[in-house]
Design goal:
transmembrane helix; glycerol channel activity; 10 helices; globular; mainly alpha; transport; MIP; Glycerol uptake facilitator protein; MIP/Aquaporin; 72% helix
Length: 297
């Protein structure tokens, strides 16, 4: 049985994940909607990538102090596999994340409801030249099969979790706590620039499933059947990748515990070897003292 105090904490963490995920998806999908409706002359997703990174940063600031700001079921399940979370706690996290993504999608829809009507004439379409359902979820690029998207999702999320584990590692003294949210937002931007060509960078199951669930109420349940049930790839692929990523890093951590921060590490900013640098400094001090002695005499 869960204690009342623990249950209250899980509920608070659920709300924090809901709030944080809402902010992330709301800001990100607003940019997708604007891109769809304005059809910019320059076919670039720079604005979308930057908006999602900003949304992630804002979500980290909001949810971080209470829940740690997972904002992603793949992250929560990866940490659960390492026994860093309890099963019930993980379920609370995922419920909050899914509800937050659902509500954010509803807010995007109502904020831009007039533009939806102007764009498709009031006839909501899942596919075709005037389709708007893709505003809410990821879609494979033309000619890219689902198996290729699965590889994309697994590799991308494995890399994401490796980076998250490295950022949160106590042995990593190369970055301050204040800089970690910015580093994470920068990583999300990089993913958008480098891995969104195949299928929109599906590294977060709730970013696809929550909005797709809302879209089902507007466009019908065809949104789950489209592209040969691609939603399964976007939902399951990131979870597989997260489990691979955390356990690869867990294995690497064995080396880190043994060899991290030992004397003799040559950092990339080191101009000279530590021994040589120490000898140079000692020589400089002796020379300086000799010159001072000569001047004084």
């Amino acid at each position: 049985m869960l204690r009342s105090r623990q249950l209250k904490q899980f509920a608070a963490q659920c709300l924090a994940e809901l709030f944080g995920t809402f902010i992330m998806i709301f800001i990100g999908n607003l940019s997708v909607a604007q891109y769809t409706f304005t059809k910019p002359r320059i076919n670039s997703n720079f604005g979308i990538n930057l908006s999602y990174a900003t949304g992630v940063y804002a979500a980290l600031m909001v949810a971080g102090p209470i829940s740690g700001a997972h904002l992603n079921p793949a992250v929560s399940l990866g940490l659960l596999s390492l026994r860093k979370m309890k099963v019930t706690q993980c379920l609370f996290y995922m419920v909050g994340q899914t509800v937050g993504a659902f509500l954010a999608s509803a807010m995007v829809y109502f904020v831009y409801i007039s533009h939806f009507n102007l764009y498709d004439g009031g006839i909501r379409q899942v596919e075709g030249p005037n389709a708007t359902a893709g505003i809410f979820y990821t879609i494979p690029a033309t000619g890219v099969p689902n198996w290729n998207c699965l590889i994309d999702a697994v590799v991308g999320t494995a890399l994401l979790l490796t980076f998250i584990m490295a950022l949160g590692n106590d042995y990593n003294d190369l970055i301050s706590n204040a800089a970690k949210p910015f580093a994470f937002a920068l990583m999300i931007t990089t993913f958008g620039f480098s891995m969104s060509l195949n299928c929109g960078n599906p590294i977060n199951p709730v970013r696809d499933f929550g909005p797709r669930l809302f879209a089902a109420f507007i466009y019908g349940f065809k949104v789950f059947r489209v592209n040969n049930y691609y939603f399964l790839v976007a939902s399951i692929g990131p979870i597989i990748g997260a489990l691979i990523g955390v356990w690869i890093y867990e294995g690497y951590l064995i080396l880190m515990k043994k060899y991290a921060n030992l004397p003799g590490i040559i950092h990339v900013d080191a101009i000279e070897q530590p021994a040589v640098r120490g000898q140079s400094m000692a020589h400089h001090m002796i020379t300086q003292l000799s010159s001072e002695t000569t001047v004084s005499t």
